Amino acid sequence: MSLKSIVRELKEMRDGIGSMSRRAGHGRAGSRHSWPGLWAEQQQPQRQGQGQEGPQQQQGRWANLPPELLLDVIQRVEDSEATWPARRQVVACAAVCRSWREVTKEVVKTLQECGRITFPISLKQPGPREHPVQCFVRRDRASSTYLLYLGLSPSLHGENDKLLLAARKVRRAARTSFVISLVPDDFSHSSSTYVGKLKPNFLGTKFTIFDSQPPPETVVLPNNRPRKRQSKQVSPRLPLGNYNVATVTYELTVLRNRGPRRMQCTMHSIPALCIQEGGKAPTPTGTIHSLDEQVFTLPTNKGNEPATEFSSTSLSADLSGLACTNEAPLILKNKAPRWHEQLQCWCLNFRGRVTVASVKNFQLVASVDPSLNIPAAEQEKVILQFGKIGKDIFTMDYRYPLSAFQAFAICLTSFDTKPACE
Amino acid sequence: MAAEKGEKGAAAKEVAGERMVTLESSDGEEFHMSEAAAQLSTLLRHVIEGGGIDNGIPLPKVAARTLEKVIMYCEKHAKAAAKSDSDPSAAAGSSSDNTAAASEDLEKWDRKLVNGLSQDALFDLIVAADYLVIDGLLDATCRKVADMMKGKTPDEIRKIFNILNDFTKEEEEEMRREYAWAFDD
Q1: A78 vs chain B: nearest CA distance in angstroms?
Q2: What is the C-alpha to C-alpha distance for residues B148 and B156, in angstroms, rounded to an integer?
Q3: Lowest mean pLDDT: which of A271-280, A297-306, B139-148?
Q4: A296-343 pLDDT, tens per residue?
Q5: Single pTM value for the model
Q6: pLDDT class for A211, splitting at 50, 70, 90?
Q7: How far apart are CA A330 and CA A328, in angstroms?
Q8: What does the pLDDT look like over A88-132, one tens digit per residue?
Q9: A395-421: per-residue pLDDT in tens?
Q10: Which of B130, B145, B164 sits opposite A16 (nearest CB)?
């Protein structure tokens, strides 16, 4: 980079151009510590000294509030705005400028630690251990859209309901799939709001859940099939992919249509051992569109393809495949309802959160190998509960180690099971 | 500028039976403060205990108009503390109402103090409270800043505090997505 262009850039900064326009070929070096993995290390060594000082010279005094004081202030905001919609204040703080963003990200704990959903990435973090996150789903049949909200049930006027995720049933040829997005009006795969999808098999007895990002601490086994089309990338640094993170299967029992179905979820990216006391489920902490810093390698295939190593700095890989943990995966099974002789129906104790009988209602618990020595109390915990409370309204309660995204995807399978299963 | 060195022989001056300390602001102005009030500042407390304040305590990081507010705060709180200490009914533990009302009044006073400040003055006061380690004042000022941000969008916050948006275009995109999700209007 020539001296002339450096001077020109500094002049632009001085003229108070807020959002830096990116010229072809380079982004900003600037302050690197808040954005691991968001972009490649495109260095501009001559500017390193300047990059940090330039904008700050133009900043008012408040941008330079000593970090511990900024931390104090933002901690107060975090403490006082615990629930939505007020919690958006915390997100606002993170969008003011870089130093504020860094401090806010430091202040806000993961969902598991603080029980609060804050940034979109919270939707991919495991819920708390002690108590479930309570949500509800609203189905709009006309548009085949399913909306996931935070809260016990729809509020009276609906204005205060926090929308978490949206899904739409999309028909392509003979198959339907569900596309999951951050917003209710954009379900394009190449959109920056794309979060994942759900694909059934032909019979509608098995569903695959795909995450647009590989969860941390997983290894990606690439698809061997040739890709039908190049997956579009929002920007060279944000590869979107489809990572197979879970499989949900439905089976009829010997009672066939007269009894409840048997459900099994294999969570490829979650190790079974994580439900042990002190265990830890993979928790992404970046942004919902970046890869975490960790480098993950693709192991050599049987076909002797060379192992490809890629990292957050890789620019162009089309990344798709099975994302799995190195250990035995967590398997969830539905709790078998009991036959209530007097009421002549199958019953599960939903503790008041489900009030309308429906074949879609279920409770999932961990199905663990006895050799893992997981205490019975842990095995009894209902990790995901889903059920009807009214016309087109369902509640969804999930907890550790599932995330909102995974829970929602699993619940969506309940809407799509075919006659073969019913 | 400074008081004559010979005058203050004692470690602290006495005024009307109360021990006073002298503080010198960054712009050379002299202020007097009761020692009791000075105790609210952990920094000043250490300095006083350490002795050597014959000629006053220089505070090169605190300007006069800020120091004035600091002293106001400390004197007010020191008096309030002294009052509740000497209140016999408080000692007897019977009038929790009084102490509750008194602390509510004090809070109101604090709010009035910070609300009356310009933004610049508020900034200076936070920094001074931090430097002098006056917990209560730091609390009140930080709370004020947090309140100022309530219900504001990032743009509005930037305007209020005169902060430049220093995100790259990409980062801004990310921010806008997050923000759109959070503010789903």
Answers
A1: 10
A2: 10
A3: A297-306
A4: 444 434 444 443 434 433 333 445 788 888 888 999 999 988 888 888
A5: 0.78
A6: very high
A7: 7
A8: 999 999 999 988 999 999 999 999 999 999 999 999 999 999 999
A9: 999 999 999 999 999 999 998 866 544
A10: B164
Contact between B125 and B70 (Cβ < 8 Å): yes
Q: Which residue has the higher pLDDT, A244 or A293?
A: A244
| pLDDT at position B8 over 80 | no
For residue A96, which residues of chain B lie inside 8 Å, CB to CB? Answer: 154, 157-158, 161, 163, 165
Output the six-digit token pair for A329: 């995966």
Chain A partners within 8 Å of B119 (Cβ) = 62
Two tokens, residue A299: 């192991």
Classify strands A296-297 and A345-347 as parallel, antiparallel or unpaired: unpaired
- For residue A95, what are its two tokens? 């969008």
Buried b (16+ CB within 10 A) or exposed e, B16-27: eeeebbbbbbee
Supply angle C-alpha A101, A104, A110, rounded to 5.
Answer: 120
Can you state the angle between helices A98-107 and A67-80, rounded to 10 degrees? 60
Residue A337: count other Cβ atoms within 10 Å of its Cβ. 16
> A32 falls in which pLDDT band (50, 70, 90)?
very low
The Cα B167–Cα A276 span in angstroms is: 41
A359: burial class by Cβ within 10 Å (0-12, 13-18, 19+)? middle
Of A29, A64, A67, nearest in space to A50 by CA: A29
Q: At what angle do helices A67-80 and B135-149 cross, to 10 degrees?
A: 60
> Based on the number of CB atoms within 10 Å of its own CB, is A331 exposed (0-12), middle (13-18) or buried (19 or more)?
middle
**Size of chain B in residues:** 185
Q: How far is A410 from chain B (nearest CA, A)?
A: 22
